[in-house]
Amino acid sequence: MTSTTSARPPGRPRSGVNAAVFAATLSTVEELGYARATVDRIAAAAGIAKSTVYRRWPSKGELIVDCLLDAFGPAPLTGSSRAELMTSTIRWVAAKIGEPGVGDAFAGVFSDAVSDPALREILSTRLQDPYRLALQEALDEPENRVLFFIDVVVGVLLHRMGMTGEPMVEADVDALVDMVLPHFTDGRGKM
Amino acid sequence: MTSTTSARPPGRPRSGVNAAVFAATLSTVEELGYARATVDRIAAAAGIAKSTVYRRWPSKGELIVDCLLDAFGPAPLTGSSRAELMTSTIRWVAAKIGEPGVGDAFAGVFSDAVSDPALREILSTRLQDPYRLALQEALDEPENRVLFFIDVVVGVLLHRMGMTGEPMVEADVDALVDMVLPHFTDGRGKM
DNA sequence: TCTTTTCGCTACCTTGGGTATCGATACCTG
DNA sequence: CAGGTATCGATACCCAAGGTAGCGAAAAGA
């Protein structure tokens, strides 16, 4: 039992600085914006060397994706009805994107992905797919409908963030809920 | 009449290559993606020197904004009812973003603006405001509602473009119309 | 022909993502 | 305690791309 599997690889173990790097990433992005939050600066803020960052993440984009995964965490799919479930999901995404640095980092890596197919694939697979699958399960909707739901919620919040530099105010999040819910609940025989 | 105003400045006149630059920008962005569509390559595709580009536009971002303004043109605010007007607007934006290079360029400059407040101001003032004002007039809605409308339509279309690399298919544009229209027409005493 | 302005060209600066190297260090095993 | 192994920090480096500067050539009008 201790030999075939990894009983722990030899050599100096990795120091547990991932959490510090994630925190440094968000605070640096919040302070300087996405483009000026260079890997050098993030590493300095985390108190490590740039080479250590590139030993753990192959690119800045993947670092950001991992950082966002850490920031979002698992989706709290709460609510007994479809309407409650969708409402809480929308508010949860809005709140997360409103957290310091998260919205900027999200919009930044999203835009990098536009001209980087490899990063787009990672963004889609590692970040979007888990939530999409969980929502498909919880809402009992086909893939294309859930993808449309994600396009709407994330797209609107990111557009507002990108255009104004500020997260969407609560009144507009309310409007978003009011707009989305009827489309996904009315006249479809699902409650 | 010929003296006080500009009777034409002396010196060599500017060659009329703006249209060629816009066309070269879109085709280069379509071929290589936003980030790899460098100013050097765009200039080469237009048959001019990079320095000529920077003589006319102070930055790549402003070049793209001008290019998008040229590509979109004035909004065709057609339709006799509010519903028709909003429908045609949504379909017009979707069609434009689906044109070769336009969606990529839009998403690219949008993401650049995330970490560049100056570019964000230009994007908001030069590109968004004209259409926002025209829509406020045509729809007789307050500014915040029109801004929300723009966030929804553009945000969704750009998110789909950024996540998949392809413009939104017609069936989903239909769903977008179906979702947006009731929110802006039902129970509000406006037709 | 002279003046003025834009042109293409080239060389250059700076920033930032990403790589390579190297001595130092931390951990486990014998 | 000695040896092996893998990570660490530091530094130097490569390359692409946005943007600038300077120059002689070309296109107009006067």
Automatic annotation (TrEMBL), chains A, B:
Signal peptide: none annotated. Keywords: DNA-binding, Transcription, Transcription regulation. Residues 38-57 bind DNA. It comes from the Bacteria. Residues 15-75 form the HTH tetR-type domain. This is TetR/AcrR family transcriptional regulator.
